[in-house]
């Protein structure tokens, strides 16, 4: 492992892109999202990643949204936390309209829709 330099930064970033999650900067700069935890912002990045991975499989043509299921135990496992913490983080995202949740039949995880970021008051 070496240093990132001016000469290799482009290739390093390209390599990292495939194995990285995208977390929008606006989640840290917009007043609307200041009240949610860093962990919930990381969860938003995981949800975006999952949405990108499955976009062709689960597109709802009627409302033109991509939906997917992501069980609480999967979220907890991916974040290395308890199911209670995973639920708290998901509820934080719901509270600022970053995610919508549609309940399914008993025993099935809810379907999730990831919403676009609303830009209200970016502080620079």
Describe the structure in your own words:
The protein is an alpha+beta fold. The chain has one domain: Arc Repressor Mutant, subunit A (Orthogonal Bundle), CATH 1.10.10. Helices cover 42% and strands 12% of the residues. The protein has helices spanning 9-18, 26-29, 38-54, 72-79, 83-95, and strands at residues 59-60, 65-69, 99-102, 111-114. A four-stranded antiparallel β-sheet has the order 1-2-4-3. A hairpin with a 4-residue loop joins strand 1 and strand 2. The chain is globular and about 55 Å long. The model has no long low-confidence stretch (mean pLDDT 82).
Task: Please specify the SSE layout and strand pairing.
Blueprint: H1 9-18, H2 26-29, H3 38-54, E1 59-60, E2 65-69, H4 72-79, H5 83-95, E3 99-102, E4 111-114
Helix pairs in contact: 3-5, 4-5
Strand order of the largest sheet: 1-2-4-3
CATH topology type: Arc Repressor Mutant, subunit A
* Total of DSSP H or I helical runs spanning 4+ residues: 5
CATH top level label: Mainly Alpha
Tell me what the CATH architecture is.
Orthogonal Bundle
**Looking at the structure, what is the overall shape?**
globular
The tally of structural domains comes to: 1
| Main sheet characteristics | 4 strands, antiparallel
What proportion strand? 5-15%
Number of strands: 4
Average pLDDT? 82
| Helix coverage percent | 40-55%
According to CATH, the homologous superfamily is Winged helix-like DNA-binding domain superfamily/Winged helix DNA-binding domain
* Distance between the ends: 34 Å
pLDDT below 50 for ≥5 consecutive residues: which ranges? none
Order of helices and strands: HHHEEHHEE
- Briefly note the structural class of the backbone: alpha+beta
Radius of gyration from the alpha-carbon trace, in angstroms: 16 Å
């Amino acid at each position: 492992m070496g240093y990132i330099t001016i000469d290799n930064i482009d290739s390093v970033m390209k390599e990292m892109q495939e194995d990285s999650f995208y977390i929008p900067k606006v989640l840290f700069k917009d007043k609307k999202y200041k009240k949610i935890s860093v962990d919930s912002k990381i969860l938003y990045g995981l949800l975006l990643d999952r949405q990108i991975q499955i976009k062709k499989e689960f597109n709802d043509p009627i409302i033109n949204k991509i939906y997917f299921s992501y069980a609480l135990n999967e979220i907890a496992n991916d974040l290395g936390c308890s199911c209670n913490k995973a639920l708290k983080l998901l509820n934080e995202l719901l509270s600022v309209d970053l995610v919508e949740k549609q309940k399914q039949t008993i025993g099935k995880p809810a379907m999730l829709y990831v919403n676009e970021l609303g830009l209200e008051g970016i502080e620079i």
